[in-house]
Amino acid sequence: MKSTKHTKGIWEINPKAMLHVRCGSQTIANCSSGQSSDREEEESANAKLISAAPELLELVFQFQVTVKGTNSPIEKQIELVLQKTRTHEKDNKRTYRTLK
């Protein structure tokens, strides 16, 4: 896998707080909006997607190797998606590259 700056380890949904994603004892994300429970299904889906993010990223890296040099639309789309995972330091704060 390429070197990334995200928290290493297995990301999982906390069984005691189903809308929290953790890696060991470290909280990765809290997907609770703090609003009404009518968003619980959406919030739960968000937590599941976030918990799968490191594995999905690894698959994208593997697929990128497979299509490298093909100059295909999917190769370009993979690069655009991977750009979203990269951060750039600017004025001592984290900023995210936007795609056009």
Distance between the termini: 26 Å
On the 0 to 100 scale, the average pLDDT is: 84
Q: Which percent range describes the beta-strand content?
A: 15-25%
Count of DSSP H/I helices: 2
Description of the structure:
By secondary structure, the protein is α+β, with helices and mostly antiparallel strands. It has one domain. Helix content is 39%, strand content 23%. The chain has helices at residues 40-67, 73-83; strands spanning 12-14, 17-23, 26-30, 87-90, 93-96. The strands form two sheets. A three-stranded antiparallel beta sheet has the order 1-2-3, covered by helices on one side. Helix 1 (40-67) packs across helix 2 (73-83). It starts with 11 loop residues before the first strand and ends with a strand. Mean pLDDT is 84; it is low at 91-100.
Short summary of the structure?
The protein is built from two helices and five strands; from the N terminus they run βββααββ. It has 100 residues and is an alpha+beta fold.
Descriptive tags:
100 residues; alpha+beta; three-stranded antiparallel beta sheet; 5 strands; 23% strand; elongated; disordered C terminus
SSE topology:
Elements: E1 12-14, E2 17-23, E3 26-30, H1 40-67, H2 73-83, E4 87-90, E5 93-96
Antiparallel strand pairs: 1-2, 2-3, 4-5
Helix pairs in contact: 1-2
